[in-house]
């Protein structure tokens, strides 16, 4: 964690941009489809077709959700020919996701 991040966390007040990004991150994690996609990508890089097949979703649904996640910098992609392969771009969010899953499974 860099000094700027420490200062934000230790501050009594959060700036508007930090509040917005944090709320958008929780919004991303509030959707079951996005959770499923992030969980899958936390294990391995995948193409839209692979995600759609593994999660039994329409390709258009996966593309829409990936665009949302990419705009929040939660996923990234690399191009191999005409195929885009998506992976996790923010391990912090995967830590949050794993904690939420652990909490949900805990009796």
Folded structure, characterized:
With 107 residues, this protein is α+β, with helices and mostly antiparallel strands. It has one domain: Arc Repressor Mutant, subunit A, CATH 1.10.10. It has six helices and three strands, in the order H-H-H-E-H-H-E-E-H. The protein has a three-stranded antiparallel β-sheet. Helix 4 (48-55) crosses helix 5 (59-71). The radius of gyration is 15 Å and the shape is globular. The N and C termini lie far apart (32 Å). GO terms for molecular function: DNA binding; DNA-binding transcription factor activity. This is DNA-binding transcriptional regulator, ArsR family. InterPro entries: ArsR-like_HTH (IPR011991), HTH_ArsR_DNA-bd_dom (IPR001845), Metal_resp_trans_reg (IPR051011), WH-like_DNA-bd_sf (IPR036388), WH_DNA-bd_sf (IPR036390).
CATH class category name? Mainly Alpha
Biggest sheet descriptor? 3 strands, antiparallel
Compute the number of structural domains: 1
Total count of helical runs of at least 4 residues: 6
Estimated radius of gyration: 15 Å
Helix-and-strand structural type:
alpha+beta
Beta-strand content bin:
5-15%
Query: Strands across the major sheet, in which order?
Result: 1-3-2
* Proportion of helical residues: 55-70%
The CATH superfamily is identified as: Winged helix-like DNA-binding domain superfamily/Winged helix DNA-binding domain
Number of distinct beta strands? 3
The dominant shape is globular
| Ends apart, CA distance between termini | 32 Å
